[in-house]
Specification:
Radius of gyration: 17 Å
Largest sheet: 6 strands, parallel
Order of helices and strands: EHEHEEHHEEEHEHE
Shape: globular
Mean pLDDT: 94
Low-confidence stretches: none
CATH class of the domain at 44-53 and 74-145 and 159-197: Alpha Beta
Strand content: 15-25%
CATH architecture of the domain at 44-53 and 74-145 and 159-197: 3-Layer(aba) Sandwich
Length: 238
């Protein structure tokens, strides 16, 4: 197995960190988020953080709630959301509340959920307006699907090329088909981008990225990639 993967192997990567397993990765990423929060609050008095959905981020959030962070100075956003009713258990904001937000109690005004229950077009338009006052996000947390998608930007989907800060997504290949995502420009403009990628199911997408295939995840520039050993391609890609 290739355990020597580095930033030169992944186009656009700023750094690559390889962890033994999901638990170790989650611990390291939680520590990294806490450090970036402290840096941003010291420099600008606020930390604008976009959360990701998925099982690996959930474990990270459970660990993050034990770190000392000035949550009064943290504003929380979401990288994407499924167009489901408010409070639906399958929404990313529901997972984030259960794993993190209900335990650290940031001011409710600091939690900026995507109003995806309004439908993709209306929700994206409203979220884009809300993001206008933010400028650059300080940190965007990202996952990667087995098809190389990130947030809700799927391969060959027209949403990938839209220029709005938040974009409506239709015909997603996994349900629900209607979603809202931060646009590619918003993701790339963030001061820090951090991927969490775990499991053998991600190997093929990583191999494609290493070969130069422009999957959506590969289009995020200067990102930190945190991988577990199970996700690493078995063969070196040359």
């Amino acid at each position: 197995m290739n355990s020597e993967l580095n930033s030169a192997d992944l186009p656009n990567a700023q750094a690559v960190f390889i962890h033994d397993d999901t638990e170790v990765l989650s611990t390291a990423v939680a520590r990294r988020i806490a450090a970036l929060a402290a840096e941003a609050i010291a420099a600008r008095g606020v930390f604008h953080l976009a959360l990701a959905g998925g099982e690996t981020p959930r474990r990270c959030y459970e660990k993050l709630r034990h770190h000392t962070i000035d949550w009064n100075q943290v504003h929380l956003y979401f990288g994407d959301e499924r167009c489901l009713p408010d409070g639906d258990a399958s929404r990313n904001d529901s997972m984030a509340r259960a794993a993190l937000l209900n335990h650290v109690a940031p001011p409710q005004a600091n939690i900026h959920c995507i109003p995806a229950e309004l439908g993709a077009i209306e929700a994206a338009a409203r979220y884009a307006l809300e993001l206008e006052s933010v400028g650059k996000l300080d940190l965007v947390l990202l996952g990667m699907g087995e098809d190389g998608h990130t947030a809700s930007l799927f391969p060959d989907n027209p949403a990938n090329t839209r220029i709005e800060a938040a974009v409506p997504v239709f015909d997603a290949p996994k349900p629900p088909a209607e979603r809202v995502s931060l646009g590619m420009g918003t993701l790339n403009a963030a001061r820090n981008k951090l991927f969490m990628v775990t499991g053998a199911g991600k190997r093929q997408a990583l191999e494609q990225i290493m070969r130069g295939v422009a999957l959506p995840a590969a289009q995020i520039s200067k990102a930190e990639w945190h991988l577990d050993h199970a996700a690493l391609p078995i063969m070196n890609v040359t």
